[in-house]
Amino acid sequence: MSHADVVVVGSVNADLVVSVARLPRAGETVSGGTFARFGGGKGANQAVAAARAGARVTMIGAVGADDFGDEALRELAAEGVDVSAVARLDGVATGVAAIVVDARGENQIAVASGANAALRGDEVASALTRLAGGSPPRGAASSAPSGGASSSSGVVLLGHEVPPAAVEAGIRGARAAGRLVVLNPAPARDLPDDLDGVILTPNADEARELAGEREPEAAARTLAARTGAPVLVTLGEEGALLVDGDAIERLPAPAVDVVDTTGAGDAVNGALAAELAAGRPLRDAARFAMAAAALSTRAAGARDGMPRRDDVVAAL
Question: Domain span at residue 229?
Fold first, then answer.
């Protein structure tokens, strides 16, 4: 992993997007929309966001041996993402997300996981070992940054659109290589048992479900007590809550003209990982990530609006 600042273990999808005046109710058809196709998958989106934020990025995931998979890998490579650790699986379709977006930029998403659901833990472990040059484990896991400077030895960013075994293998492999671990628990599901030192980045709904607490602040504190690490809870246009030890801070998001919120959470995670990998203090990395997310909503699709580092710096 010496050649990569950020390694993303996550999903790769094709996004099929229909834009309509308003979101349909259950059983309702809303006509008059427009259609577009984009690269997607939370993991792949986060990899693009991290690359545009200046990180050297490697993607670990799986796609099918189909046209969607070919295009997904071409798009990632064009962004400068190393896709050599993405498995090509015969007989399994590349993941697909069907997305409906309304005139306010709100969305509904249904996902067919395809090859993402077939990513195995041993494949993730082997890829992380190769990226680390086959080096043996260094012992104790690196601690999560708290307030001051972050780890500059690299970040492994994980998400829940791949199987639990793949996530758990990613956490173990990151620790073995002495890397900081960030877990975006989206969609919400049971968390791994061993989360010591893992930074969690749920949105408000995910935080409530994972912690069993109604209020985002209480949920964040509950999750932080479980991990012994900072927790960043994103709140959409209201910004985010950062819990770091006993301290809690609300981080604003810049006001922008929203076109499409699809991928905003991925922009947060990719930008955060890139900044932490570059050695930025956690609070500064989180502020940068919130600005990147806000700027990402100015264009349709999960990736088209994702900003480059200079644009984010100018917005801060």
Answer: 6-11+41-94+118-315
